[in-house]
Amino acid sequence: MASTKPTPSTLTLRLKFHRTSVLLHVDPILSISALKADLLHAIRETHPDGKLHGRPLPASPSDLQLARLVDPADPAQGWQLIADGDSTPEGEEEDEEAAEAAAPKKKGRGRPKGKDAAAAADSGNGSSNGDKSMKSLGIKDGMALAFRWAGEAQQRDGETETLEWEDWDVKWPHFEDTFNLEDEGMVE
């Protein structure tokens, strides 16, 4: 894992799992698979026993899954899975394909603009299999991303339950947790 020295263009990402937040400095052109490798390396360095919150760590970075908040202002709306080869949120692909078909073909030389520039940047970032960069996925500085590993099962009341796509084990801090308040001075 190559460490990234913070620069003005470097992104600081908060990767969350349960009550754990991992801060990583990443380049905007870093691919998702490289981010997963950096994340797994950081977790293994800080948890040498190979477990995070009692759950064994995945064997490879490809087992990790990432998600972004549906609405950053309202975490209660949930998380949206970031697929490795995905460049657009779900449902927007048809609109972009229709717009491309309706747009006239451009001739001439010069640097590509718009989506063509993002595609050109992705082709030069060393990623393979259509893996997109942070910038092309719209991931911004300070953004919170959830992570989990594929095939993860959760123990509840002695039963093993497979997590659904919508289930992301992220606990948000509350005011009461921060200041250790237990209804002091509350009148009922």
UniProtKB/TrEMBL annotation:
It comes from the Eukaryota. Residues 87-99 have a biased composition (Acidic residues). Residues 117-131 have a biased composition (Low complexity). Residues 78-137 are annotated as: Disordered. This is Uncharacterized protein.
